[in-house]
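Suppose a colleague, Dr. K., hands you the sequence of a protein chain of 174 amino acids and asks what its three-dimensional shape might be. Before reaching for any lab equipment, you can write down a predicted structure in token form. Begin with the sequence itself:
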Amino acid sequence: MPEDLTRHNSFSANSHYPEPKIECKNINYANILLQDYAGTVSELTASCLYVFQHIVSEDRYKDYSKLIKGISIVEMKHLHLLGETIKLLGVKPVYTNSVYPCGQLWSAAYVNYTDRILDMILEDIKSEKQAIRNYEKDMCLINDKYIRKLLERIIEDEKVHLKLFKEMYKEYSK
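The predicted structure, expressed as tokens, is then:
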């Protein structure tokens, strides 16, 4: 797990990540976070999508490939922080969207495998917008100050990613 993100500062917000912490164990909160961890629109899906996009774009679109690689590392950091928080909440951080009741396992079918540059960037923009909406919704459902702080920090990164993808889209739309 990449602990030192100093080489990837341009792909994340400037503030520090809070340490995973909770007020008390709560399976309902864990189920909410599992959606962000390994649901259809999740950190796991984003990480896999961005690694795929990095690989298929590195020969033809070097600037995009560099961007997507840096952002994928930040998304992996989010995945790690959410997994640690889910564990603290009393649930094993498996790649599923719910544990009680038993949910659906994460699927590689969640990843959009298009390799056309503008379509990839549009998918990235769509994914980041949905992630922000999901985290904002979660903030309304979770009443734990530590988790809320973590979600606020992750939202900051997602907004940076959205801005970077919009800028990249403008460049490739010319």
